[in-house]
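Sample pair:
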Amino acid sequence: GNVVRKTIKQTVMTSVYGVTFIGARQQIQKQLKDKPVFKTNGEVYMCAQYLARITIKCIGDLFRDANSIKAWFASSAKMVARTGDPVKWVTPLGLPCVQPYLRMKNTSVVNTIIQTIKFAREAKDQPVNQQKQNTAFPPNFVHSIDSTHMMLTCVKCKEEGIVFAGVHDSYWTHAGDIDKMSSILRDQFVQ
């Protein structure tokens, strides 16, 4: 068929990071655009819109509790941002986190061939970007917990003499140490 696992995979994976309906539609549209079954870009758009709507609804139905927690995080971030402060928290490792999202006023803009950079005189005098504080907090908090887990796992593996390598949420070791690492992973998650 034309709708395979890959068609909606990115949308499902980014749902925990707060993908919007428009973002989901664009992700799906990108997967569908080269399918020969579609005659026009309009057909691709309509199909992507339909699949995005269904995918987001199914994710909401399947992960009701996770979505409730995500909504609570977003609501909490919104309340904090309304005070004019950025959202802050401390990871279980003791690492302080501060979301740097500000609405830059009185900026100088420099365009480079790579990107556009905005400079502000004093960051401390810039108001927080309430919308970005709100939408970024759930995924940023989850990333901070994931990275804490990885650090705890890495330290314990070193203590146990196990070779450790990892990227994001992928953990590697020598094949002979997989069972030991598997046990360490679970123990450190509980920490």
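Helices lie at 5-14, 21-32, 41-62, 64-82, 130-159, 178-190.
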